[in-house]
Amino acid sequence: MKRNDAEPIGKLIQKYLRQESLESPLNEQRLLDSWETVLGPTIMSYTRDLYIRNQVLYVHLTSAALRQELMMGRELLVRNLNQKVGATVITNIIFR
C-alpha cells in the first residue's frame, strides 16, 4: 500500500531538531567549525578560543594587528559566517 503523506527525510530531521530545541546548538557548532574554512588556516593559527553566547561570537586572538584588521571587516565576516551555515546564528563578533 502506497502512503501519500510521505515527507523527505531531511525535512523530518529538521522538524525533530526544532521540537527538541537542538537546531540552534547544532547551527552554533557548524558556525564554529566553519571559522577556519571562511578565514583560512593562517588566521586560524592566531585564534585561541571561539565561543558563542547570546548570538555573539567571541574570538580570542594572539595578534593585535590581526584583531584590528578583523574589526574593520566585522559586518562582512558576520554575513559570510551566517551564510556558510545557512541561518542567522550570530549578530555580532567581539575580538579579544
TrEMBL record:
Q: Which InterPro entries match?
A: DciA-like
PANTHER family referenced in this protein's UniProt entry, alphabetically: UPF0232 PROTEIN SCO3875
Spell out the protein name for this chain: DUF721 domain-containing protein
